[in-house]
Structure prediction request, 94 residues.
Amino acid sequence: MMRFYYFQEKGAFTRDETTGTYKVDFEKMKTAMTELCVRILTIQGDGDYETAKTWVENNGQIKEQLQKDLDRLSDANIPVDIVFEQGRQLLGLE
Prediction:
């Protein structure tokens, strides 16, 4: 969730209020991904527990608008997670 809200804050994607759909700005996304990596590595490298804790508290959960959008997908039976089905049985090896 923290990545989602970070990318949102950086304008890496936008949400159309009328349709409730999202659009990625690929150039801003590339920049935001780099900046996010720097932020995470800096927090980790500095051992900055307080910043990490505050960040998780503020952006570590699904907020109301996103939950509504996820509920719309669920109601429409649209999967939101990728599930890898793998193993010997699927390959016919058992």
Observations:
- The radius of gyration is 18 Å.
- The CA atoms of residues 88 and 94 lie 6 Å apart.
